[in-house]
Structure of Peptidase M28 domain-containing protein:
Amino acid sequence: MASMLSSRDVSGFKFLFFIAIMYAIISLLVHSVLHMKFIKPLSIDAPLDRFSEARAIHHVAVLTKDGRQEGRPGLRKAAVYIKEQLEMLKERAESNIRVEVEETTINGSFSMIFLGHSMSFAYRDHINIVARISSADVKETDPSVLINGHFDSPLGSPGAGDCGSCVASMLELARVTVESGWIPPRPLIFAF
Ligand SMILES: *[C@@H]1O[C@H](CO)[C@@H](O)[C@H](O)[C@H]1NC(C)=O
């Protein structure tokens, strides 16, 4: 059959082949730029002014040792751990940055629709931990930025993703804020 192809056909096929190869190379390039560009996770001993994924993962490891469902001791332990971390930041903060930590215990209830069913939940003696990081000359009326995440975990799960990872990121973010020397122009409120 090959002998039946004219030299024009052959160069035509060569050109088609060339286009196909170029298309493949460009597709790979675009794919790698769009989907494969991950930020390199930083280790536990990364500089203190950088967000370290390893330090965040360490928080997740501590938080997921016990279940943190409402009423279980793990929930209280998590609250103690979060508060300790924030108190540590308070001690390390320079004089131009203010860190305030507060713990509140509340009772309450809420209703929601889940899978078409109406449900009501009630909780008692639930601990919330709040930290405000601001410049030393903050005024009580300054508008703030709220960053929040829940540290209780869903039923039957250690809750690494829901929402240990949020809490861990918040703790690392709070630490970076205090230890980077950056003064937030507006107070940051971390509500756990
Ligand atoms: C929450 O409920 C418990 C038990 O009913 C009660 O002892 C406690 O004082 C309540 N706390 C608040 C903040 O209302």
